[in-house]
């Protein structure tokens, strides 16, 4: 069955997966067994859909009907193909600007980042298939509707997207407090990609190692880092400042 942006029932969710319906997350009942349920689990893992196991009471709140131990949240916005988006941007924009998010998991941070990205002229946002905040109602609301105005692409591995952009002449800069140089020393008047890390761990070490530049923001207080959405805004507006002076 389907209700607004929720699908429930094992076969209904399977059909949605097989038809390519964009699904944010699937909630599965803890401890449930059976052939159909096992098949659904296999479909979810094969399609790399975010999922979690929750108590029956949680499922009852999510769906008012016979959910059979499975409830899925559908994305209101379909994620786009990364290579198609990247090619289109680089073919039409003199100074492409991409934003990559390395497992930003907070929905409101995700929405705030989308809003800032749209306001600063980012041409596309790229996120990993797993470990990223869902593009759900809260994210869209926090983005003030900006999520409808900017392409958002998913990739299996963020490093593959970085290599692709670098091979296309895009300079990739990571935001990290571990950098030696501040953001203001970099030149953004060239094809650019900015990558922001997760709220807790930042950019993964293996990803940091393949970036063209690392940059940090000056911090005058006792706190060692900014909220990721705030830091993202500062980085993006430095790009805007340089490109408009």
UniProtKB/TrEMBL annotation:
Molecular function via GO: RNA binding; RNA methyltransferase activity
Sorted UniProt keywords: Methyltransferase, Transferase
InterPro entries: Alpha/beta_knot_MTases, Ribosomal_eL30-like_sf, rRNA_MeTrfase_TrmH, SpoU_MeTrfase, SpoU_subst-bd, tRNA_m1G_MTases_N
Domain RNA 2-O ribose methyltransferase substrate binding: 6-80
Keyword Methyltransferase among record annotations: yes
GO cellular component assignments: cytosol
CDD domains according to UniProt: SpoU-like_RlmB
Gene3D superfamilies the record matches: 3.30.1330.30, 3.40.1280.10
GO biological process: methylation; RNA processing
Full protein name: 23S rRNA (Guanosine(2251)-2'-O)-methyltransferase RlmB
Species this protein is from: Flagellimonas marinaquae
Source species taxonomy: Bacteria, Pseudomonadati, Bacteroidota, Flavobacteriia, Flavobacteriales
